[in-house]
Amino acid sequence: VVNISSLYKDTGMFTYDPGFTSTASCESKITYIDGDEGTLLYRGYPIEQLADHGDFLETCYLLLYGELPTKAQKDDFVNRVTYHTMIHEQMNRFFAGFRRDAHPMAIMCGTVGALSAFYHDSTDITDPHQRMVASLRMIAKMPTIAAMAYKYHVGQPFVYPRNNLDYSSNFLHMCFAVPCEEYKVNPVLARAMDRIFILHADHEQNASTSTVRLAGSSGANPFACIAAGIACLWGPAHGGANEAALSMLAEIGSVDQIPEYVARAKDKNDPFRLMGFGHRVYKNYDPRAKIMQKTCHEVLGELGIKDDPLLDIAMELEKIALNDEYFIEKKLYPNIDFYSGITLRALGFPTNMFTVLFALARTVGWIAQWKEMVEDPSQRIGRPRQLYTGATRRDYTPIDQRR
Ligand code: ACO
């Protein structure tokens, strides 16, 4: 039996807070969430307004610099991002080193971390100019790397960036253009892609963002920090939930099966949960879920997909759950992942690319949060406490005396 009080008598007071549900790790001016109201603000601007009227690169500027850009600032920012879309040619060889059936997130972890081996002139975090160049490079190169991971995975040749296209159109082009065939980006789908990027751009101190901040607090370079964020995002409880929601809808299979699955979700003896429902912070409708639902309808409408059985199941499931006492009482509403899987699948992405797209979009949030931390004079290396519950001091036993 460990005598905790004797171990901790001289360490002062500290909180034991598994999952950090009530401990703030930083001050931030970037993103605000009111989970009870269902509000999400980037630098004070509601996500609905940014998704309706803004575009992703404008949102990147806002997250990085705190204000919406003027026309001249925006043009300049777009030019500077566009300048950096290529990756070093030698990096192509990294992709060839992976097995074809490698998960694209595994490829992302490796290649993004490798950027620091190529761009030495933007790894000195004490230099504001280098920090700025690193930020632009990350935002510019993520679509290229993500598209290359996709192309490698499906066994097609890489498509180089087209800098006369806007950010999201260029990304769709790099993913879906094939040699010897005309490929024209559909502007409605490009706009939907752009909106999906805006919705995922930042979400305050979630697990991956906290990981980026913790890695950065030691002075690690930004490329290494973003690679750490990607690794954290990969987990099914974080970036992998949209894939799980889509699989669940497929498993339910038809609208008449829904009551059975709702009953299972309410049964305490059954570990099954309705994927895409509930959120640690939102105890009201996730505002991103509403925009995602609208985007989903737009994409399916544009592609002429009239009857998507998974969409029918999703809409009916939402209706049933929102009128069910259990879900009302526990404040379980659809989250962003509920409709994003259906939308991304309709855009043509295989399920194992869903988290990659999330990482692409979240890169700006990670980099803005990293920059804010590095520029904060009160920042110290992150070093959580622990509540030790192991053995107290004891003496080494020679191996021949151990039982
Ligand atoms: N289906 C059924 N019951 C649920 C669900 C669900 N999806 N989510 C929560 N509950 C119940 C729990 O069983 C628990 O019930 P109890 O009070 O009787 O024990 C209660 O609601 C609270 O649940 P917690 O797990 O304590 O809530 P927490 O805030 O820790 O978890 C989470 C939030 C992980 C998102 C959870 O709601 C969940 O597992 N949802 C499904 C997975 C999912 O959609 N994840 C994506 C999140 S969004 C994102 O990461 C981008």
TrEMBL record:
<dbReference type="InterPro" id="IPR019810">
    <property type="entry name" value="Citrate_synthase_AS"/>
</dbReference>
<protein>
    <recommendedName>
        <fullName>Citrate synthase</fullName>
    </recommendedName>
</protein>
<comment type="similarity">
    <text>Belongs to the citrate synthase family.</text>
</comment>
<dbReference type="InterPro" id="IPR024176">
    <property type="entry name" value="Citrate_synthase_bac-typ"/>
</dbReference>
<dbReference type="InterPro" id="IPR010953">
    <property type="entry name" value="Citrate_synthase_typ-I"/>
</dbReference>
<dbReference type="InterPro" id="IPR002020">
    <property type="entry name" value="Citrate_synthase"/>
</dbReference>
<dbReference type="InterPro" id="IPR016142">
    <property type="entry name" value="Citrate_synth-like_lrg_a-sub"/>
</dbReference>
<comment type="pathway">
    <text>Carbohydrate metabolism; tricarboxylic acid cycle; isocitrate from oxaloacetate: step 1/2.</text>
</comment>
<keyword id="KW-0808">Transferase</keyword>
<dbReference type="Pfam" id="PF00285">
    <property type="entry name" value="Citrate_synt"/>
</dbReference>
<keyword id="KW-0816">Tricarboxylic acid cycle</keyword>
<dbReference type="InterPro" id="IPR016143">
    <property type="entry name" value="Citrate_synth-like_sm_a-sub"/>
</dbReference>
<dbReference type="InterPro" id="IPR036969">
    <property type="entry name" value="Citrate_synthase_sf"/>
</dbReference>
